[in-house]
Amino acid sequence: MKRGQLFQALRAAAALVLVTVLGGCGATVHGTGVASEIDVRTLDVGTLPTSSPKLASRLSNLGYLRLEAARISDAVLSPHVVDAKYSGGASARAHTDAQSVTYYLADAVIPVLQKHGLVVGFSTGSADDSRPLTKAALGTREREGLAVTVLRFSNAADAEAAATELDAVDFGINPENVAVKLPRYASSAAHWRPSVPTLGSTTAHGVFVVSVLADARTTDLNRLIEMTQKYLDAELPELDTFTPSPPDKFNSLRQDPDNLLVRTLHESGVVPEPDGQGEVVYTARGYLNYILDQAGRYPVMQRAGVDRVAMTPSVIVFRTRDDAAAAKFVTESVELDPAVNHRAVDPPDDVPNTSCTQDFSASSTAQFRCFVAYRRYVALLLGGRLWETQQMAAAQYALLANSR
């Protein structure tokens, strides 16, 4: 059975991210402190801005599609939420066209998606032993986990027809495929190859199609069926509670409804359009799909009451429950990193509630990491050089203070 990509590399926002190189020093920084707080004008921020970046009043059609995909991410459960042993995330991607879906499904599905009017979608995945992959390694017998793709169509009839054809196309790719029934989901289509420990299924549910690829270490069909059904048991009710935005109302979606992106450092002073992964605000559960160490980091987020996350290529801002939760979130986040992979480095001078490390396992452009807390907000800044990351942290603190 040939089935698209199983666990694609987690985008840099959760672990290895590309960071814009920042530099310069000596600029005048506008802003004032309040009683019992530092005067942020005294901080070394180089030439970085410390006032809120500008937000576009309108986006392109693609930008609005990406906002809707980010909304759907909250309704697409990471398999870790369904079964805690799938602790490693390795795959998350928004879909705004049929071509992008082929990272997860076979290339032959493109005409089916185009024929039935794919609107938008989202993919996620996690396993008990994950590693970054650029292409699926099906049947490796090296992990147990699930890859999930949820696709939205214009209406239920198109979704049902698409589900039938998606399974038929994938089934026809390999002559060894054998049809499989899901006992609790009689209307679902599924198939596998008896010599390969994977099971692919396709389920129409209202305007959605849910594609699940279960991967195990052994060719135990009953186990693969139960993995799939357990996920569907949890996921389908989530889709029932999600209200899709009407396509003719996409332009009413707001890029920053919680004023979090305008609290996030942008070197240019402008918030770009959503790029497919970042420059959007996720719920905590939507953001979970992008985390590599889901078993470690998600509980920290939950304890801190994180409810919104603004994601950019080099800065992530979390909104926590309150000031105390933010401070604890910084401490616990830093302590999560294995000692063998990181060392403490100097935080920026005179910036309170800040902790910085060097991560030896990260890419060279993101090896320095600073957490900074201001009131209920926590920012994670990533850079390739210590001094630039320190300046980013200082500027981010000033921006949060100036955004009260």
Description of the molecule:
There is one protein chain. The protein starts with 53 loop residues before the first strand and ends with a helix. It has helices spanning 61-73, 79-82, 110-115, 156-171, 221-241, 284-288, 294-303, 323-336, 386-402, and strands spanning 54-55, 88-95, 118-127, 145-153, 178-182, 185-192, 198-205, 208-215, 270-271, 280-283, 308-311, 315-319, 342-345, 354-359, 368-374, 377-383. The chain is 26% helix and 24% strand. β5 and β6 (185-192) form a beta hairpin. The longest helix has 21 residues, at 221-241. It contains nine helices and 16 strands. It is of the alpha+beta class and 404 residues long. α7 runs antiparallel to α8. The protein has a seven-stranded antiparallel beta sheet, sandwiched between helices. It has a seven-stranded antiparallel beta sheet with strand order 10-11-12-16-15-14-13, with helices on both faces.
In short:
The chain is α+β, with helices and mostly antiparallel strands. It contains 9 helices and 16 strands.
Keywords:
7-stranded antiparallel β-sheet; 404 residues; disordered N terminus; globular; alpha+beta
Helix content: 25-40%
Alpha plus pi helix count = 9
The main sheet comes to:
7 strands, antiparallel
Structural class: alpha+beta
Proportion of residues in extended strands: 15-25%
Side-by-side strand order of the widest sheet: 2-3-4-8-7-6-5
Please tally the β strands and state the result.
Answer: 16
Shape: globular
- Over all CA atoms, what is the radius of gyration? 22 Å
The end-to-end distance, rounded to whole angstroms, is 55 Å
